[in-house]
């Protein structure tokens, strides 16, 4: 795909709009979660369940589920107001209302007879052409539609969400032989663009893609740990980040999923897999799992699982179970030598390490990867689809075939032969080649036929990783790079550790202004890391403070202020395009952009007060401007100041892009992309739109209430202190923040400029970073990753 991306046709847009109302049948954890996410997409949804015997409230199951959704942590709704789009009801009194739904999702108990009974009722009331889907992951589609009318089978498919539906990006879609291709297309488009899902089309096989491989991976890891005598911590230490899996590792993941589900998944897989499937050899009924479940240790949803928090003695101590004895003991946070080796020598260094943990990693990964290679094309037509499903469904950094490429397919196959193990046909066929290659700047995957084809991107998707494969940066240093993304638009990409902002980043901000000014139309600030930016590099500030290099601290603040000021007043539009966390300086650069196009899962805020500091790269000033210009919400001199103090002083971070609007981090005119794969294309389109007849904003002057407001804020903070909601140093920090936001030594009859507020920010920051309690907070955060309340 070229830099311009692929344009959506009017037909594409019509398919997305085809689903304007929905119904979910089954108000359990998954059904209610799906309903909440439909509401997040702006779709009114009817949530129905049965009427329990002798129930006073006939809607009690759906109503209770809705109450739980409103209290869920992590939040099921992207904004509390979205709950209003979910209407609870029951299958006896409200079934006819399903006729209004364009999409009906069945999420009832995993029993074929119950599901088919529901389908029979739906067929009698649903409107012609409405889509019906099941969230099942265990029952084949052909069994679900057996005996049902042709009209039902035509409109039916499986849409398998992962839990929690809001946050897990994978949606596996299975179409039957009779499914109308237009129904399939409409569902895939809607799930992609409205629900923000990575949609993977699967074949009608047990467990589909992600759970077929993921359940084998977990079962093998458990079985091998028991047989090889490897402890829980050690197993997670090598099969977490070193293997490219989430840091929770295998046992931490099983705690998250729920230990009580392990026997259920095993039962389902054993019932439906072929007799010669390797899963049967990997499966063992683990006594420790039964013991834990019977003791109430069902995972994080219970009182713990393989890990637990012991709260005895008034302290929280994380403990881990011994797989042999069942006894708990404090975690040791072990780092096996194999895991250390992986940092320097990658995946092959991990599995070749001669210690027990290295042998364990090889045993689990070799079985999992060879099993995966044996399943294509049985479960999916392409290796690319398998990798996508595992990365989105299990949060692996690389898919199984990408891991095989890292190890070397020929090397891996030879190792299997040396151990007398069968080599899958697909692995034999690839020989000394790889499953992926880059040709002429395009990423290609190997078909089962042996031919290579471009890795497919859905229409309208533009990825920076694709652009980077086929071009060189316009400018680059160790912290950031500048890329031409086509049509006269330039992208500034952060790529330091955690995208922490430093002098290199600020230098590249200034360089980007020059590059765009030399003949381009607009700038987009975007990257494809997990987090947009965690803020300024506080380690550098702590080092300078400990060395009393106060001039260096002042220079850092000055550089940031100058860079962001130049960005705001550049002669071209700037669009910030964040995803994940955009904190501190990462938030401030967004506030200085002309517009923001945020991924729906963007967590934006200025948490500096938690470190004993205040925003100093123009963040206070920009928040004040936004509050002052929002006259519908904040009238008079005091309300804007108090609102910004509430947000910044409480270190508030939005839990979604939708919530960021209410906190003023986003304006009403800013955009939100449900699918982060579409974020760059959406931001680029916004930048091009703004570039028509663009004029940069002028410097503003405004009136602030001065010491009167500062005194009012400090009185309120003292009340917080007396009630125990503010610590002594919170009071100190609040005093400095109050002075900045109230305008310093001014009053409402005078005007202050943007530069005046910047000067107050700098003054407060430099004073606070010299304070010993601030230095203690920064040190504690760097060492533990947690705030210090001093």
Number of helices: 32
Radius of gyration: 28 Å
Mean pLDDT: 92
Strand fraction equals: 5-15%
CATH classification class of the largest domain: Mainly Alpha
CATH topology of the largest domain: N-(1-d-carboxylethyl)-l-norvaline Dehydrogenase, domain 2
CA-to-CA gap between the ends? 53 Å
Helix content: 40-55%
Anisotropy-based shape: globular
Give the tally of β-strands. Answer: 27
Which structural class is indicated by helix and strand composition? alpha/beta
Low-confidence stretches: 1-15
Give a written overview of the molecule.
The protein is of the alpha/beta class. The protein folds into four domains: 185 residues, Rossmann fold (3-Layer(aba) Sandwich); 237 residues, Orthogonal Bundle (N-(1-d-carboxylethyl)-l-norvaline Dehydrogenase, domain 2), CATH 1.10.1040; 189 residues, 2-enoyl-CoA Hydratase, Chain A, domain 1 (Alpha-Beta Complex), CATH 3.90.226.10; 78 residues, no CATH class. It contains 32 helices and 27 strands. Strands 3-2-1-4-5-6-7-8 form an eight-stranded mixed β-sheet, with helices on both faces. It has a seven-stranded mixed β-sheet with strand order 15-16-17-19-21-23-25, with helices on both faces. Strands 9-10-11 form a three-stranded antiparallel β-sheet. A hairpin with a 4-residue loop joins strand 16 and strand 17. Helix 14 packs across helix 15 and helix 21 runs parallel beside helix 23. The protein starts with 9 loop residues before the first helix and ends in a 6-residue tail after the last helix. The N terminus is likely disordered.
